[in-house]
């Protein structure tokens, strides 16, 4: 609750620490996982103004309809919209950058770096945790996440890599409606992977889905050397055909041939 009140940068820090139970402990890490997609949304008028400024056209020329936010996270929020395609309406997901977020992150990250430097100067334990490097990693990740053209490129590359994979797919990018602050994607109808009761009620084989998650990640990492580096359950859905669908490609990872071989040998 405190991190949420402190704002987007602190929420992102909490999400980051949720992946490190070895540092903060399992109980705290589990609590911090609740920060995924739990931010208060910004106003509809601000979202619409951001879209118009980014794409340089009136909103009615871009989307047939532009609905209220359906999910809000630390850096952006997602709206359901519709476009006209060959005389028919098609649903799309529109990811919009939070207004003023870059300025806010810069100020907060400066404070994080100050605290990390002071801690490492006075504490051997802080030096062991390499707090300055932790903040630097967070800063690099956030800078990449705030340019949606990079996420669109990652989605397109992943789609190309996985086009023959029967059990995994990614949403298609609408490049004509994508810019630095706006990303338009195919709308995904699916069940969140963390909603076990709903998946079971629809008759999905949960252990088989678990295998699909692991096999998909290993194919991406070992076969392609390009993988989704934020593959938590909030970013994974199961469509009506039982395929795994991943969203939110803001954080990606790459492995060279040597690293892929090392990983394979370790496994």
What does this structure look like?
It is a single chain. This protein has 267 residues and is of the alpha+beta class. The chain contains 13 helices and 10 strands. It has helices at residues 2-6, 8-18, 21-24, 26-32, 44-55, 59-62, 101-122, 124-129, 131-145, 148-161, 196-201, 206-224, 257-266; strands spanning 65-72, 76-85, 88-97, 168-169, 182-186, 191-192, 226-228, 236-238, 244-246, 252-254. The chain has a 4-stranded antiparallel sheet. Helix 2 crosses helix 4 (26-32).
Give the topology, please.
Layout (H helix, E strand, L loop, with lengths): L1 H5 L1 H11 L2 H4 L1 H7 L11 H12 L3 H4 L2 E8 L3 E10 L2 E10 L3 H22 L1 H6 L1 H15 L2 H14 L6 E2 L12 E5 L4 E2 L3 H6 L4 H19 L1 E3 L7 E3 L5 E3 L5 E3 L2 H10 L1
Helix pairs in contact: 2-4, 7-9
């Amino acid at each position: 609750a405190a991190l949420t009140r402190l704002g987007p940068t602190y929420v992102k820090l909490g999400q980051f620490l949720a992946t490190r139970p070895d540092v903060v402990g399992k109980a705290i890490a589990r609590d911090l996982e609740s920060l995924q997609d739990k931010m208060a949304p910004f106003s509809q008028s601000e979202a619409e103004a951001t879209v118009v400024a980014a794409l340089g056209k009136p909103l009615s020329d871009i989307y047939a309809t532009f609905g209220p936010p359906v999910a809000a996270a630390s850096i952006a929020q997602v709206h359901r919209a519709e476009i006209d395609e060959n005389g028919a309406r098609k649903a799309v997901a529109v990811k919009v950058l939070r207004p003023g977020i870059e300025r806010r992150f810069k100020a907060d990250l400066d404070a994080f770096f100050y605290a990390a430097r002071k801690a490492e100067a006075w504490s051997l334990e802080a030096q062991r945790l390499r707090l300055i490097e932790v903040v630097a990693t967070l800063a690099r990740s956030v800078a990449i996440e705030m340019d949606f053209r990079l996420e669109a490129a990652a989605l397109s590359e992943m789609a190309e890599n996985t086009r023959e994979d029967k059990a995994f797919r990614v949403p298609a990018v609408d490049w004509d409606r994508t810019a630095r602050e706006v990303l338009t994607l195919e709308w995904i109808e699916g069940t969140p992977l963390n909603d076990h009761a709903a998946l079971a009620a629809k008759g999905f084989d949960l252990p088989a889905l678990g295998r699909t998650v692991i096999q998909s990640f290993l194919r991406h990492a070992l076969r392609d050397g390009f993988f989704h580096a934020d593959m938590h359950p909030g970013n994974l859905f199961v469509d009506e055909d039982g395929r795994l669908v991943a969203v939110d490609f803001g954080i990606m990872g790459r492995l060279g041939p040597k690293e892929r071989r090392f990983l394979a040998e370790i496994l």
